[in-house]
């Protein structure tokens, strides 16, 4: 399963709450759905309305989840005696991109 994050627009006159459902301080600009699956945890599915600041936070959450999953996969491969050098290189370059922000 892949982790996913979807944003959609919505009709502000119809079905939106007055405030972002994550920070409860700014008006919402998107409807979001975040699905994540971490190693050794129940899959999580969250959805609601969020502001632009929280939308950025959700993207970071998705990045972190993906990075954790890759680390777990690398550990599993290493435990099975696979050569993880190539995989490790890709993981390191992904981390470098994320940390440079
Ligand atoms: Zn917010």
Structural account:
With 101 residues, the protein is α+β, with helices and mostly antiparallel strands. The chain has one domain. 43% of the residues lie in helices and 19% in strands. The protein is built from 2 helices and 3 strands, in the order βββαα. The protein has helices spanning 52-79, 85-99; strands at 4-8, 30-36, 44-50. It has a 3-stranded antiparallel β-sheet with strand order 1-2-3, with helices on one face. A hairpin with a 7-residue loop joins strand 2 and strand 3 (44-50). Helix 1 (52-79) runs antiparallel to helix 2 (85-99). The protein is elongated, with a radius of gyration of 17 Å. The chain starts with a strand and ends with a helix. Zinc ion (ZN) binds next to helix 1. Residues 20, 22-23, 26, 50-51, 53-54 line the site of zinc ion (ZN).
């Amino acid at each position: 399963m892949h982790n996913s994050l979807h944003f959609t627009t919505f009709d502000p006159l119809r079905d939106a709450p007055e405030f972002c459902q994550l920070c409860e301080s700014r008006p919402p600009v998107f409807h979001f759905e975040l699905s994540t699956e971490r190693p050794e945890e129940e899959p999580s599915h969250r959805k609601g309305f969020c502001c632009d600041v929280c939308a950025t936070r959700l993207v970071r959450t998705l990045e972190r989840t993906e990075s954790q999953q890759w680390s777990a996969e690398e550990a599993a491969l290493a435990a099975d005696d696979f050569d993880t050098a190539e995989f490790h290189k890709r993981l390191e370059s992904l981390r470098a991109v994320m940390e440079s922000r």
